[in-house]
Amino acid sequence: MDAAGAMAHLFSPQGRVDPYPAYERLRAHGPVVEIAPGLYVATGYTAIDEVLRDPRYEVTHEELTQHPVAAGTARPST
Questions:
Q1: Could you state a single Gene Ontology molecular function term (predicted)?
Q2: How far apart are CA 37 and CA 59, in angstroms?
Q3: Rounded CA gap, 75 and 78, in Å?
Q4: Lesser CB count within 10 Å: N end or C end of the chain?
Q5: Where do the structural domains in the chain lie, given as residue ranges?
Q6: Neighbouring residues of 5: CB distance < 8 A, sequence distance ≥ 6
Q7: Entry pTM
Q8: Which residues contact 41 (CB under 8 A, 6 or more apart)?
Q9: Which stretch of DSSP H or E encloses residue 20?
């Protein structure tokens, strides 16, 4: 399963009941995974810690809400 499929599974009813298989699939793709053009998911503590502490990764609210996946107007492909 590709990273976008794993992310879609995570948001499915089954994935919400048991998210751990989807987390495992995402982590198998690496510490930072692109799930859609320009949309990345950090999958491990070290990567998440780095992203949260580094000001270069700052995203404004407006930038986030304009992304089609984050805004809910598009879904990752399965």
A1: heme binding
A2: 15
A3: 9
A4: C
A5: 3-66
A6: 25, 76, 77, 78
A7: 0.62
A8: 3, 7, 26, 32, 33, 35
A9: helix 20-28
